[in-house]
Amino acid sequence: MHLLLILECINIRIFHVIGWVALALVASGRDALLYVHTAFSSLAGIVVLLTAYTSSGYFTKSRALVSALFAGACTSATMWYSIFQVLIDAGKISLQQLSYIWLSFGVLMLISSFLYLDWRFPILNLPYHFGGKSEEKNESSSSVASKSISEIDRMKWYTRILKRKGVWQYLISPLYILVVLFLSILLLPGIFLSVTWYPWVYYITKKDTLLTNQYTFAFNLSTISAIIICPLHGFLLGFNADKSKKNKLFNISLMQTISWLLNIVTCVVCMFPQTSMIIPALVMNCIGRATIVGGSQAVVATFFPSEYIGTLTGVMWTVVGVIATIQYGLVQLTDDVARSWRAWLVVLSLVILMSCHLIQLWWKYVKELRKKSAAATEDNIATRF
Fold first, then answer.
1. How confident is the model at residue 307 (pLDDT cuts 50, 70, 90)?
2. Which band of pLDDT confidence, cut at 50, 70 and 90, is reported for residue 261?
3. What residues make up the domain containing 16?
4. Does 328 reside within a domain?
5. CB under 8 Å to 332, separation ≥6 — which residues?
6. CATH number of the domain bearing residue 308
7. Residue 335 domain-assigned (yes or no)
8. Are 223 and 191 in contact (CB under 8 A)?
């Protein structure tokens, strides 16, 4: 808990402040400050993402809902850039003024975050105390776990991999590998559409700049729906999941299948550059992206131990970032919008290939169902005799 608070207080807030200060000071001859803003804003975003998802481990029975809520918040936050752009273009506010306003929020968060640390002395008579007592109470219960962890820590890294000890037991598990690949591939349609959206709509509207800008603004603003879709997705994932493993597997399998089908529809719709396809593409992309992010993160938060959620989440999103670079090789296929279906066919093929993850999940569910049926049959036989 102390580590999460330190990350939240120092890394996120300070990186946030430095990033917006750099953007506020950008002027002619200070172009390098744009790189500073990009670097520190990215670092702050990464730490926010990992810290938020890792903190879902503190919610034992509602990890799926909490992690999906964080996913929705992170996804919908991109809408602010569209709002900022509209305000700047309309002359309502300047980039420098906007940077200072956002900077003030970062300073307030930095100051307020110190009030929630476990200080050795009281601050403003708040009911917070140093966390030593709670640690002493939990010391006896966690002694066995600490010994096993220390034994694993003394092993060589290659020994941990070969013996599947510690986090490696989960990093190389088939479920985790396919979940990571599933998320990476199924995010491609949404990411690729974001890159090609403007030229695609510009071609469909016969180079109508005003109409294209309106569609683009709607596309960017639609991410706000993730704040509703992701928690709903997380609620469905966690529905009756704590009652049995069968229910948990069914929820996961069903929601991941829905995400997969939505992304297939998105790929097919984007193959046809027609006016009637703009709104369906926008809606399908919005729902599909929100469900896949919330669903895959909920899988990690639900099926793997809480002490490894941070590492597993970090590795997962690193792989997602690496695989997402595939889109840059496909952009050249969209130079001629009329033939951009070739790029979407490649993306569609990759999405269809990830049906292997769905087969894996449904097979796990069938095996669990058979196990329950066999146990019920044995109980009936024992009752009769």
1. confident
2. very high
3. 2-119+173-371
4. yes
5. none
6. 1.20.1250.20
7. yes
8. no
User: Nearest-CA neighbor of 82 among 208, 198, 203?
Assistant: 198
**316, burial (CB in 10 Å: exposed 0-12, middle 13-18, buried 19+):** buried
Rounded to whole angstroms, the Cα distance separating 308 from 306 reads: 5
The amino acid at 367: K
103 falls within a domain: yes
Confidence of residue 349 (pLDDT cuts 50, 70, 90): very high
The yes-or-no verdict on residue 296 having pLDDT over 90 is: no
Q: Mention every residue, 6+ apart, whose C-beta is less than 8 A from residue 88.
A: 94, 95, 98
Q: How many domains does the chain have?
A: 1
Which amino acid is present at 24? A
Burial class (CB in 10 A: 0-12, 13-18, 19+), 81: exposed
Is residue 324 packed enough to be buried (19+ CB in 10 Å), middle (13-18) or exposed (0-12)? middle
Residue 326 domain-assigned? yes
Report pTM: 0.73
Which has more pLDDT, 137 or 96? 96
Helix (H) or strand (E) holding 176: helix 174-186
41, 145 Cβ separation under 8 angstroms: no
In this prediction, residues 237-260 reach a mean pLDDT of: 81
Alpha helices by DSSP H, 26-94:
32-54, 63-76, 79-89
Q: Is 274 exposed, middle or buried (0-12, 13-18, 19+ CB in 10 A)?
A: exposed
Distance of CA 16 to the CA centre of its chain: 20
Distance CA 53, CA 56 (A): 5
Q: What is the mean pLDDT of the chain?
A: 77
Q: Map tokens 């930095």 to a residue.
A: 110
In degrees, rounded to 5, the angle at the alpha carbon of residue 319 between the alpha carbons of residues 152 and 327 is 175
> What's the average model confidence in pLDDT over 214-229?
82
